[in-house]
UniProtKB/TrEMBL annotation:
<dbReference type="Pfam" id="PF13536">
    <property type="entry name" value="EmrE"/>
</dbReference>
<feature type="transmembrane region" description="Helical">
    <location>
        <begin position="162"/>
        <end position="180"/>
    </location>
</feature>
<feature type="transmembrane region" description="Helical">
    <location>
        <begin position="228"/>
        <end position="248"/>
    </location>
</feature>
<keyword id="KW-0472">Membrane</keyword>
<feature type="transmembrane region" description="Helical">
    <location>
        <begin position="128"/>
        <end position="150"/>
    </location>
</feature>
<keyword id="KW-1133">Transmembrane helix</keyword>
<feature type="transmembrane region" description="Helical">
    <location>
        <begin position="260"/>
        <end position="282"/>
    </location>
</feature>
<feature type="transmembrane region" description="Helical">
    <location>
        <begin position="288"/>
        <end position="308"/>
    </location>
</feature>
<feature type="transmembrane region" description="Helical">
    <location>
        <begin position="68"/>
        <end position="89"/>
    </location>
</feature>
<keyword id="KW-0812">Transmembrane</keyword>
<feature type="transmembrane region" description="Helical">
    <location>
        <begin position="201"/>
        <end position="222"/>
    </location>
</feature>
<feature type="transmembrane region" description="Helical">
    <location>
        <begin position="95"/>
        <end position="116"/>
    </location>
</feature>
<protein>
    <submittedName>
        <fullName>Multidrug resistance efflux transporter family protein</fullName>
    </submittedName>
</protein>
<feature type="transmembrane region" description="Helical">
    <location>
        <begin position="37"/>
        <end position="56"/>
    </location>
</feature>
<dbReference type="InterPro" id="IPR032713">
    <property type="entry name" value="EmrE"/>
</dbReference>
Length: 325
């Protein structure tokens, strides 16, 4: 139950991303600064936490050992996740982006064959290749239907171009985030905790954010004070608190793809949190009845996905050579 609770709290703080990114877009800020400033501001917060826990040296040694791997999966897990998500905020309300983002639940399930699960046997532990949880995936179709209803309800007020740019980047991000997160868990094993892993991925992604910042300064100029302050809030709430909570939740179920999918499914609560936040903070109009129906289907799909993922019985798969423990 603890991983699910951590996941829901993470969803609450992640919702600030969609609310504040939308606020920055409405006030004339560029998505370039919304994306890059978040990760630049995350560094001092995370560095302070890891240093206080006296865990910086092991992290640096781990990164030095495999720098290329850290750069690759940090780029996929952070840059290809957050830059497209910030870009999409320019084309629709935060709750709509948050609703479309729930496709990550399905994306995460489809990525299962790329990883190995730990199975306990009488002779010890073995690793088997993960499998797509088809029953859970069928339940997730409700999430897709819900997203389709929400997007369809907004389609009349958006041009085809705006509709496309508000959806396709989110789909890219929905695959990049779980892929980068899971691969880094695989790379780090039990040698690093969630705080170290988030800091390491943030540091490894810095070259890309600095390049994006240089481009932003040349293309749109420097960010306003308002956008800088809001980016700082996103960095603290979403980048530090939410990311660490979510990574902690995934660490607790590491090696079990079904439970990992259930934790990732908790992120559907971001939709409700984003709706409430935009209404309270931005005085945005509430979604239409049709959009509420779509959101309800997303939440029901999340609940069914979590339930089935917990109950699904694994099938026998070819065993990969692995030392018993």
């Amino acid at each position: 139950m603890r991983p699910i609770i951590f996941g829901i709290f993470a969803a609450f703080f992640f919702a600030f991303t969609f609310i504040l990114n939308r606020s920055m877009e409405l006030s004339g800020g560029s998505w370039i600064w919304s994306a890059s400033l978040r990760y630049l501001f995350m560094v001092p917060f995370l560095l302070m936490i890891v240093v206080c826990r006296r865990n910086l040296k092991p992290l640096l040694l781990e990164m030095k050992r495999r720098p290329g791997v850290w750069l690759l999966w940090s780029f996929i897990g952070f840059v290809l996740f957050y830059a497209p998500l910030s870009f999409a905020a320019a084309y629709g309300p935060g709750w709509l982006v948050a609703g479309t983002w729930q496709i990550t639940i399905i994306s995460g399930s489809l990525l299962a064959p790329l990883f190995f699960e730990t199975k306990k046997m009488e002779s010890g532990s073995v690793k088997v290749r993960g499998r797509i949880p088809f029953v859970g995936l069928m339940m997730s179709l409700l999430i897709l239907i819900g997203v389709g209803i929400m997007q369809g309800d907004q389609a009349d007020s958006l041009s085809a171009k705006a509709f496309m740019w508000g959806v396709l980047p989110v789909i890219l991000a929905s695959f990049a985030y779980p892929l980068g997160n899971r691969k880094m868990m695989e790379v780090c094993g039990n040698r690093l905790d969630a705080y170290q892993r988030v800091l390491g991925m943030t540091l490894a992604s810095l070259p890309f954010w600095l390049l994006l910042s240089i481009y932003g300064a040349a293309a749109v100029g420097l960010p306003s004070i308002g956008q800088t302050v809001q980016s700082l809030l996103v960095a603290l709430c979403s980048g530090v608190i939410a990311t660490v909570l979510f990574f902690k939740a995934t660490d607790l179920v590491k090696g079990n793809m079904s439970k990992l999918a259930a934790v990732e499914a908790t992120q559907s609560f971001e939709v409700l949190f984003a709706v409430s936040g935009e209404w309270l903070i931005l005085s945005a109009p509430l979604p239409t009845f049709v959009s509420w129906v779509g959101m309800l289907l997303v939440i029901i799909g999340m609940i069914l996905h979590s339930y089935v993922s917990q109950r699904e019985t694994p099938i026998k798969l070819p065993i990969v050579k692995y030392k018993s423990v």
